[in-house]
Design the sequence.
């Protein structure tokens, strides 16, 4: 099986998974009730909601710009192409790349980060591997923040832990405990043997510096790993930690309000006692759905958000699903529109979204 076919099958599987979860969330719903809720929504809240989506992503673009600025540079490289290479790291370029990446995620799950990095590499003088290191670095940081948000949600929902245990933890533990112990032990032992065997084979191949593999390692892989490492460390080496903190707080505050406003639009906040603290908890729980490899969290986000609203807050299923659709659709439409506009504005076509594009291997300022 070729890598292209394998990638296509994985993408097809993610769409099937999204469709299955969406159907599961929709099962037994009163569609007429959902339609009525949409028609009666207070659409005046739509403008602040769109502004929040824009603002939170501008904060994300600013933070990425700060991390890219922290990539290793040397003073003698400021004359690259007659100018300072860091001037290509603009807020517009990072924002456009992020929007394009989100748009790609709806078509090819998990490929958005690659497309985002390739687009920025094509528009700047930085190597793909360096930029990808900064993306991984910020993703690790965001995962840590999400972990903290989930812990805070558990603490805030402490009086409802029995519901969490019955609806979420219990079924998950039952599924895990039903797996045969022999499969788990055998799988772990097989994985260790496979990794150990590959490590020995790799070491043997690299011991001959004239082998094709050793040459490939020295000329292609090692430089890429070094620049990737430089990108990974930018979160620590950046001197603008205050900007990273402010942008992160601004971004997550935007996410919180983006989770809360649809409750006001659908008039669900007051009847079910949902405030900002509850929106924070639901935002953290809903983010788990975005971790499932479906196109842009379609289906997985709707399912977990609906279940959480029904079991934790007693919201009727149709209203809970309507909220999930509205909260997700606001971002979906925004990302598709801004990502498409960014592509048109750049006028560089779709080819730049591939890491194999010639412009994506631009000279690293620190290596020119």
Sequence:
């Amino acid at each position: 099986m070729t890598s292209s076919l394998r990638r296509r099958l994985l993408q097809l599987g993610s769409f099937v998974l999204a469709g299955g979860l969406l159907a599961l969330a929709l099962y037994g719903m009163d569609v007429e009730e959902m339609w009525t809720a949409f028609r009666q929504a207070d659409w005046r809240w739509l403008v602040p909601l769109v502004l929040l989506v824009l603002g939170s992503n501008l904060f994300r673009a600013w933070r990425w710009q700060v991390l890219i600025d922290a990539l290793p540079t040397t003073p003698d490289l400021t004359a690259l192409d007659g100018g300072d290479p860091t001037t290509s790291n603009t807020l517009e370029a990072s924002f456009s790349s992020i929007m394009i990446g989100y748009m790609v995620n709806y078509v090819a799950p998990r490929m958005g980060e690659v497309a985002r990095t390739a687009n920025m590499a094509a528009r700047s003088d930085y190597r793909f591997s360096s930029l990808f290191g900064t993306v991984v670095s910020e993703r690790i940081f965001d995962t840590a923040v999400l972990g903290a948000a989930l812990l805070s949600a558990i603490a805030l929902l402490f009086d409802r832990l029995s519901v969490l245990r019955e609806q979420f933890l219990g079924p998950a533990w039952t599924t895990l405990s039903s797996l045969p112990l022999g499969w788990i032990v055998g799988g772990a032992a097989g994985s260790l043997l496979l990794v150990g065997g590959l490590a020995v084979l790799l070491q043997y191949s690299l011991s001959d510096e004239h082998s094709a593999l050793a040459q490939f390692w020295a000329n292609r892989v090692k430089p890429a790993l070094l620049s990737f490492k430089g990108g990974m460390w930018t979160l620590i080496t950046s001197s603008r930690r205050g900007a990273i903190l402010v942008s992160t707080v601004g971004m997550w505050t935007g996410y919180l309000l983006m989770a809360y406003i649809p409750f006001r639009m659908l008039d669900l906040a007051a009847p079910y006692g949902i405030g900002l603290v509850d929106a924070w908890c639901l935002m953290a729980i809903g983010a788990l759905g975005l971790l499932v490899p479906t196109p842009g969290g379609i289906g997985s986000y709707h399912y977990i958000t609906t279940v959480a609203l029904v079991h934790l807050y007693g919201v009727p299923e149709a209203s809970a699903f309507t909220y999930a659709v509205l909260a997700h659709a606001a971002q979906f439409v925004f990302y598709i529109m801004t990502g498409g506009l960014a592509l048109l504005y750049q006028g560089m076509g779709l080819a730049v979204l591939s890491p194999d594009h010639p412009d994506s291997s631009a000279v690293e300022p620190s290596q020119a």
